[in-house]
Amino acid sequence: MNIGQAAEASGVSAKMIRSYESTGLVPKTVRTEAGYRMYSGSDVATLGFIRRARDLGFSVEQIAELVALWRDRDRAGADVKAIALEHVEVLRRHDNPRALACTEAMPAEVEKWDDERSRDGQASIGIGIHYVPVVIGDVGSERTTAFAGVGDTVNTASRLQGVTRELGCGIVTSELLTVKARDMASDLSLINAFRPASPRVLRVRSAPVDIWYR
């Protein structure tokens, strides 16, 4: 397949594919007599692996090491696990403040979208955030897959999103997330903008959930 088809199949832009080849993250592919790049199914699988690793926040250096291990049929599973666990530990120190920072940026993007398309009406969003381990991965069939999170954490966040309509606010978080973010954040200005609300009984939870909102 050509570079456009490889880009569509892997979810990596043609520009980034060229960049990965130039830096050696992926090997230079074969070319036709006319000089066009051609990609195999294995090439596309590697590009997809890199995309998912970037989505998870791995550095280019870490991805290069993971790709090398992935290609090595004699690799030790412990080597891959060690890199992954090291990265997870780094992320855990910052994921709560980052989640709140992301919620701050999302409404701003919606406002920008509204300004650009004001004639089409206004859009609005509510955001719910919760924090406990979550299962993530490719979900679906061989024909259609999507990288998604599933489980109780996702369901709880979805119900918290519904509470935004009840409170007439933009963001609702669980107290668990707010407390952990307060412990981890270097700048408390964003967290201090949230106010506590009375606990809510959510359809997916057996006990009331303490919440904060803004």
List keywords for this structure.
214 residues; 2 domains; Alpha-Beta Plaits; alpha+beta; 51% helix; globular; 8 helices; 4-stranded mixed sheet; Multidrug-efflux Transporter Regulator, Chain: A, Domain 2; 8 strands; two-stranded antiparallel ribbon
Written account of the structure:
51% of the residues lie in helices and 16% in strands. The relative contact order is 0.09. With 214 residues, it is an alpha+beta fold. It starts with a helix and ends with a strand. It folds into two domains: 3-92, Multidrug-efflux Transporter Regulator, Chain: A, Domain 2; 96-213, Nucleotide cyclase, GGDEF domain (Alpha-Beta Plaits, 2-Layer Sandwich), CATH 3.30.70. A hairpin with a 5-residue loop joins β1 and β2. α1 packs across α3 and α6 crosses α8. The protein contains eight helices and eight strands. The protein is globular, with a radius of gyration of 21 Å.
Short description:
The protein has helices at residues 3-10, 14-23, 41-55, 60-71, 77-92, 95-116, 152-167, 175-184, and strands at residues 30-31, 37-38, 127-129, 135-140, 145-150, 171-174, 195-200, 209-213.
Topology:
Layout: H1 3-10, H2 14-23, E1 30-31, E2 37-38, H3 41-55, H4 60-71, H5 77-92, H6 95-116, E3 127-129, E4 135-140, E5 145-150, H7 152-167, E6 171-174, H8 175-184, E7 195-200, E8 209-213
Parallel strand pairs: 3-6
Antiparallel strand pairs: 1-2, 4-5, 6-8, 7-8
